[in-house]
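Re: weekly structure request thread

Next one in the queue (449 aa):
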Amino acid sequence: MFINLLDIEKLSSEELNNLYEKNFSNSLYEFFKLGDMVVHYEKALGMNVWDTEGNKYLDFMGGFGALNLGHNHPRIIEAVKNHSSKPNLLQQSINVYNGVLANNISFLTNDKLPVSFFTNSGAETVEEALKIAYMYYGKGKIVYCTNGYHGKTLGAISALGTNSKNKFLHFEHQFIEIPFGDINALIKVAKKHNIAAFLVEPIQGEGGINLPPQGYFEAVREICNESEIVLILDEIQSGLGRCGTMFCYEQLNIVPDILCLSKSLSGGIMPVGSVSVKQEIWDTTYGKLKNAMLPSTTFGGNTLACIAAIETLTVIKEDKLPERAKELGEYALMRLNKLKEKHEIITEVRGKGLFIGIEFGGLKKLHLPMLEEFMMINIISKMLKDHKILCGFAANNPCVIKFEPPLIVTKEEIDCFAEALDKVLDENKNEFVLAVDTLVSTGKNIIKN
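Done, posted below.
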């Protein structure tokens, strides 16, 4: 049967679960069931979400970095509502909101990246950055980093820094992988190959919140200048206040040639991405009249997405969220490092601002990657079920819990997270106790389901 919006409210939880499993993703549904994490969330605001039974949860996942302002920020919602009568998709002339949003990004980069155009997602943004680099130099290879993550489209998958990219056909011979933070590796490939671009995150997000060595990006900038390599900085997770400055690159004493933004650019309300480019590169590529229509898309830079993004940047700037992230990030690192001192299963806490990784390096002693992942799911499930806190692990390094709350988080809420994790780890003193508990919990969930 066809189901309209009013019908949804009449369906039972079991019926809704069956629709998800049958028509959307049976494998993902099985994954959530094994972790005992099938919850129906009904509403969300700020740091909180509520399920259909009225339980309130603290969100420390932050939409994988898309919710820097928290859920459903009222100013963003109101801005979109107030402009809902505007033509959203009208390609026969200019869209003035494109120009305003691009101007504001230029202002925030101190006019170092004066031209921007807009896409629908982070992965699309990366694709466009790669296309510009190829157009600029005409040929060459793309260098990326081990454990890097830039999306799941074909070009972005080719720059995925894990072996899981081998499950897809990808441009294996056009992309070269080097270790993150290894300047000598970049020097070697720059000498040996014709390189069009170096695609890199300032801090690896899905790699496990990996920070670069001191001075690394200054050396990267110098090599890219000398070897005529386009430096593409992927700030899709690290940007927009997350690391304690509006853009993370501001702390690295460099300016990239191309900056990729998305996720929280619209406060998590509308899908939007931004490719921001140095003037010379733009003038040589999409800035030419003959190439004017090449970056056009149906939905990219639509009116409502741009309005949400303009208001989001305004809120971030007016509410001084980068400064807030810096201050609260220092507090969070202090609280989480106290947990590390108490629980030997935590081997490192690292990060900048409110972009922090908690590494459970002790799990690697078991040398069983699948068990490691299920053990982390067990921890996350206990945080969810017992303490009503949402959190997740890094896609490319499952032994790292990502601490990535909205930038509106309070010290009291950070304390709640730390106290909850402390209690979960008190129940699982070491990796071997946790492994046994995971096997028992997983077995129970298999029997129950």
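The chain has 16 helices and 15 strands. Residues 35-65+320-448 form a domain with the Aspartate Aminotransferase, domain 1 fold (CATH 3.90.1150.10).
Next request, please.
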